[in-house]
Amino acid sequence: MSGPSKTPGEDRGRCYGDDGAVPTFDILKSLEIFLSVTDTGSMTVASRRLGITQSAISQQIKLLEADLGTPLFDRQSRPLRLTMAGITLHQRAARLILDAKETWTCTRQASEVLLPHLRLALLSTVATPLVPAVMAAAYRKEISVQTISIMRGISRNHTQDLINREIDVAITSDALYEHESIERHELVQESFILLLPRGTDLRGRDLRTIASRLPFLRYTSRTQSGQLIERHFRRLRLDIAPNFLFEAPDDLIAGVAAGYGWSVITPTQLAYSLTDVASVEVARFPSPGLSRSITLITRRGEFPNIAAQLASVCRRVLRDDVLPRVNAFLPDIPDSFCLADEMPAADMLVP
């Protein structure tokens, strides 16, 4: 016995997956994905650029085609070629997205109602001083939100979550410069330093000499710091393999303090993870130096006022609380921690 008949267009905008589930159709998200596939000529390349799976890309394109009732790509061609309908949509899609974002922004700015909820992720190394300040600012309505979820962790997870819309704002060491859709507020640039066990008498020595005397302790490649250090050593053609790898600054610094090796860290990682300053020695990183930036990032056009408010709170804490603490830990390296408003324009980007 046949089931009830469907009215024309009843399944329009739906694309069933292998498990029978109906994915959510977001017209703006689908248009952004469509533009990325068009620009790259490949769903595989677009998935890498957007940080989502190729399956999700394909599903959203199918949903968009189902909603429009026409194919947008000639799938027999490589690279993918637009149909006439696809060309027509491509000519208008970018303007549609920009208009929607501008409308969203203007509506938020015109409203006196606070944003109901904000999802904020922070680097673990700056979470300790920033979290109480953000809470106090929200309580005093310096930040236009009603409630905030605060998460900490590593930059790699936060940037992926931001792209996937699982968080709204991230304070991170990966500013996603390859993504044009990201709004950035520079906070601080800090130089990496050498961390040595007390009494090793290796200050002022080059990296090869230090590595020949002591085991090397390093962050894992899952962390932004680990990736930066690894790339820097490759540029210098230094074959220094780590004996131990860590994800948390507390563990790495504890290993150095216990005398198990030396490491490369940043001032903020040291200032909020080291309990006994007498247990280690610090030294300037040999030339050429290595640095990283800490940046507040969000999706462009979605939270401009709130992002600026958060950045203002963060800069105040970094200036009034973090900078004095770093200087106390590193009196001989006073230029290792530079606030964004004191940085020359050429120094704002990390290579």
Would you kindly provide a written description of the structure presented here, covering whatever features stand out?
The chain is an alpha/beta fold and 351 residues long. The protein folds into three domains: 27-108, Orthogonal Bundle (Arc Repressor Mutant, subunit A), CATH 1.10.10.10; 112-190 and 292-344, 3-Layer(aba) Sandwich (D-Maltodextrin-Binding Protein, domain 2); 193-289, 3-Layer(aba) Sandwich (D-Maltodextrin-Binding Protein, domain 2). Helix content is 42%, strand content 20%. It has eleven helices and 13 strands. The protein has helices spanning 27-40, 43-50, 54-68, 84-110, 124-139, 155-163, 207-213, 224-235, 249-257, 267-271, 304-329, and strands at 73-74, 81-82, 115-123, 145-153, 169-172, 182-191, 193-197, 216-219, 244-246, 262-265, 280-284, 291-299, 337-339. It has a six-stranded mixed beta sheet, sandwiched between helices. It has a five-stranded mixed beta sheet with strand order 9-8-10-7-11, sandwiched between helices. Helix 1 (27-40) crosses helix 4 and helix 5 crosses helix 11 (304-329). The chain is globular. 32% of the residues are buried.
